Amino acid sequence: MFYILVSIFLILLLFGTPIFIAIIIPSLISFFTTFQNLNETLAIQRLIGGIDTFSLLAIPFFMFAAAIMSEGRIGGRLVSFVNSLVGHLPGGLALATVVTCTLFGAISGTGPAAIVAVGTILLPALLKEGYSEKLALGTIVSSSTLSMLIPPGVAMILYGVISGTSIGKVFISGISVGLLTSAFFMLFIFIYAKKYNLPRSKRATFKEVLHSFIQAFWALGFPVVILGGIYLGIVTPTEAAAIAVAYVIIVELLIYRSLKPLDIYRIAASSGRVIAMIFILIAAGSLLSWLLTVAQIPQMLVSLLDGMNPILILLLINVIFLIAGMFLDPNSSIIILTPLVYPVAMSIGVDPVHLGILIVMNASIGMITPPFGLNIFVATGTFKVPYERVVPGLVPFIFISIITLLLVTFIPEIALWLPNLMP
């Protein structure tokens, strides 16, 4: 059955079939050919049951909030505030790009939203200040992946739902890993800026910093309210997602007045179409996961890898997700592969939170890795720049991300020390 699934799946992908169809068709074929004695309604029940989970409500809420912010003023106000703090350093505006994307990640949870909301402001500014297009694009597109690592991330929610791991703990784990990745990006830019004498802005006065802080106050309050509520156990991630939508609507509609009520309706309709596609994908993945479990494929993998060095198994999992990320979007790779690798990782004693953050890190790297990294194509469409001009600037950041991934792989405490402090 496994070979039928894989063969049909790959053939459908080669013909450009949408991912959810490429999952559902081989799953249904396998179901009806392998389990002929089962009622066909069971397949429908598995599809529906896959999305009948309270935790999954966090996904549409956070995505809706991110879509509103992409068209509002939160991104611009964050840019101004961060630039007032670090703009005077070597490569200051590039450093501000990394910090802003990190902060925006704590608000949106999706990489493409960061490219649209932050990148459209920063790319013209970077080019105007004399940065090369290569470095400017590389910094923006690579930093957008921090939105996946800094909670609340949609990929983290998916992993938590599929594996049964605490979404709150995976969220909190992402803070240390996201900040570490951000720090490495900034270190590279700082060294590069010193070597090539990149431009820096005039140091902002205290009055200018205070003014930009006041302007960005409500945007900066967003992660405090959301993450603080989760960390202190006041709200669940799903409840925090609902609060996120209410918060961003109030800020953009009533405080910043960047949007009108009809804009909210339009954004809701647009977000609904994207969310519907993701939930169909989740439903299809649920059927696939059930079939693999019934066929005992995960158990076979555990037996096959029995006796192998745990570090080698973790490295193998990294390689699998890195390769998948080059060809599939993050949601698809997590939905398809997590049911396979999770039992293997648990059999060698890997902490499920540690595994989750490794999977999310791999997915984030895949978003900027050729040939089909999702954020590369988002950047080409957003900035109207050819594919071949986006990729070169990503290379150093991909290497930095892989180094960070290896550190977190070999030193689990990097990812686990904050979750271990949770009540």
From TrEMBL:
The keyword Metal-binding does not apply. GO terms for molecular function: transmembrane transporter activity. One of its GO terms (cellular component) is plasma membrane. Pfam families: DctM (PF06808). It comes from the Bacteria. Keywords: Cell inner membrane, Cell membrane, Membrane, Transmembrane, Transmembrane helix. It is a multi-pass membrane protein. Residues 8-414 form the TRAP C4-dicarboxylate transport system permease DctM subunit domain. This is TRAP transporter large permease. It comes from Anaerobacillus isosaccharinicus. The lineage of its organism: Bacteria, Bacillati, Bacillota, Bacilli, Bacillales.
